[in-house]
Amino acid sequence: MADDFTGATKFRSLTGPAKALERSVLFALTLVGAAWAGELHIFFGLAFFKEQYLGLFVGLTLAAVFISVKATRESGTDRVPWYDWLFALGAAIVGGYLVVLYPTIAYQLGVLTPDKVWLGALAILLVLEATRRLVGWSLVILAGAFILYARFAYLLPGLLYAKGSSWERIASYLYMDASGLLGLPLSVAASIVIAFILFGQALYAVGGDKFLTDLALVAMGRFRGGSAKVAIVSSSLFGTVSGSAVSNVVVDGAITIPMMKRSGYPGHLAAAVEAVASTGGQIMPPVMGVAAFLIAEFLNIPYGEVALAAVIPALLYYLALFVQVDLEAAKHGLVGLPRKDLPRLRPVMRRGWVFIVPLLVLVYTLMIAVWEAGKAGMAAVIATFFVGVFWKETRPSFAGVLKAVEEAGRTLLDIAVISAVAGFVIGAIHLSGLGFKMSLILTTLAGGNALLLLILTAIVCIILGMGMPTAVIYIMLAVLVGPTLVQLGVNPLGAHLFLLYFGMLSMITPPVCLATYAAASLARSDFWKTGWAGMRLGVVAYVVPFIFAFHPTLLLKGAPTEIIVAVVTAAIGVFFMGIGLAGFLFRPLGWSARATTTLAGLMLIPPPSTGLWLTANLAGLAVGVAFILWEWNMAAARQAPVADADPSGR
């Protein structure tokens, strides 16, 4: 189910005191979050419960939503209605109660009192209404279904039966328990994601967006199909900053899609390239999507370990995309962009060190110094503004800094509200015991077979992901299915990355795929043609998770020799698959030739961990190489008569 209305149409355009209050709340949300992520409370020796901070975070977030976001598409944009002022006041009360009284009631959370019950009910209603405004009805309906199950599970038969909880217990638990609103999703958003959103806005404030685009143009613009390759590089770089597929499509696609269409790519293919490239930003280190930070918290490992494990699968994803757009360019006779339209490398890099330094700081603090992710993000923010002042072209104005802070708060609203409602889902699952029951149901359906369970999980991910954020899908499946996958022998990190990948794929898998919707709208292309092209371009993401779930060498786990062999064979396999899916090498390929190369690629992707897989790798390599040599000879034979012909025509 798609959003009711998206983008700029959601937000009001206020003036006067209302605008000043809106900006103040957004500033406060960003600055409070940045202070917590940067661990200033530890530096100054301030001791208080994390739940108090989360209460403040929730209160500011909900207040900002009801001041800034319209109730419906048709609502006025120049003023805040009276009922939204009441909602904002309610948000302040809900958050303020936790800030002030949590230390007193922390050890009596199980005791039901009227204040907990009524404020809990108010918190649930406010979060669901904020979710409806920002995300749409799909997530509201899903959360409502889980809450209703926690209440009425006693009416269901068989494995789905549960005792059920009272409304009072549900309201209090979801509001105040660490497995509910104040749980892991909100904690990650309020202490980690905020830092990386601010980092992205800081890069924009010093002109980082232009640098990323220019760098992509310098690197790829002169090659055949250069416009599409520029889109891939720039979208992947933007994606590592934004972490949102849809916003990435909207921001970057407004530039890259027209550029691809002008160079000769069909509209639906240009849109598909942008959607797939932007979606891949969620899996591309060093800064991945929100779900990657959740993986680190679920598994209690450093985020750097998650990012390092994700490197090879992400590179394979983009390799498949590169191979296909290159062959599509050859198929359509497309050439690179004119040299006069390309920026020069030296000026780009002379200005670019300003942006490279913060990225190096981020990689060092995350991967080598192993700082907490939020603290590392804030170090990158400070580095960005620090080095930005040295050049006139990158020196941000005071107004620019203020805008970066305000936009960071505005960008955070979606993620914070999604995280809050995800906490309700997890809380309802815990209250009802549905997690154990769902694991039992899926295990029974799979007959204890890990591969079949992965297939069922992938299908569930894509179905549940229709119109839903990746992080929510990941959270639900991590609670419901993650433990069962591990029990059946799947590597824990591989299992959670599997859930991340298939949650992400809902963005480009028809019939409901928000990134593809956005790209097709920008390209004015047919949605279904765009959707099928996107699935083809992103095919590696449908295949590789099944491989690394059982073969962690693709996650850089194992002996160096094994990892190198696994990466090389997988890369060759992806190359062969790209040829088969694009349907072109030196000439257009028929369906039998395409099937042959695709099968050869599939045989090469699994690492040669056993005799069976080694045999499959060798067979795939032999078939693929033989096919390429055959096609090369056929192309040479076809060109020979032309070369031997008399140029004068006599």
What sort of overall outline do the alpha carbons produce when their principal axes are compared?
globular
| Euclidean distance between termini CA atoms | 67 Å
Poorly predicted residue ranges: 1-7
Helical content (DSSP H or I, runs of 4+):
over 70%
Strand-pairing-aware structural class = mainly alpha
Describe the structure.
This protein is mostly helical and 650 residues long. Among the domains are: 7-185, no CATH class; 558-636. 73% of the residues lie in helices and 0% in strands. It has helices at residues 16-37, 40-43, 50-68, 82-105, 114-134, 137-152, 167-176, 184-205, 208-220, 226-242, 245-263, 267-279, 290-299, 303-309, 311-332, 345-368, 373-388, 398-432, 434-446, 450-464, 470-480, 482-487, 492-504, 514-523, 527-537, 540-550, 560-582, 591-604, 611-644. α15 packs parallel to α27 (560-582). The longest helix is centred in the middle third of the chain and has 35 residues, at 398-432. It is globular and about 90 Å long.
List keywords for this structure.
mainly alpha; 650 residues
Short recap of the structure:
The chain has 650 residues and is mainly alpha-helical.
Write the layout of secondary structure elements.
Elements: H1 16-37, H2 40-43, H3 50-68, H4 82-105, H5 114-134, H6 137-152, H7 167-176, H8 184-205, H9 208-220, H10 226-242, H11 245-263, H12 267-279, H13 290-299, H14 303-309, H15 311-332, H16 345-368, H17 373-388, H18 398-432, H19 434-446, H20 450-464, H21 470-480, H22 482-487, H23 492-504, H24 514-523, H25 527-537, H26 540-550, H27 560-582, H28 591-604, H29 611-644
Helix pairs in contact: 1-3, 1-8, 1-18, 3-4, 3-18, 4-5, 5-6, 5-7, 5-18, 6-18, 7-18, 8-13, 8-17, 8-18, 9-10, 9-16, 10-11, 10-12, 10-15, 11-12, 11-24, 12-24, 12-25, 13-14, 13-21, 13-23, 14-16, 15-26, 15-27, 16-17, 18-21, 19-20, 20-23, 21-23, 23-26, 24-25, 27-28, 27-29, 28-29
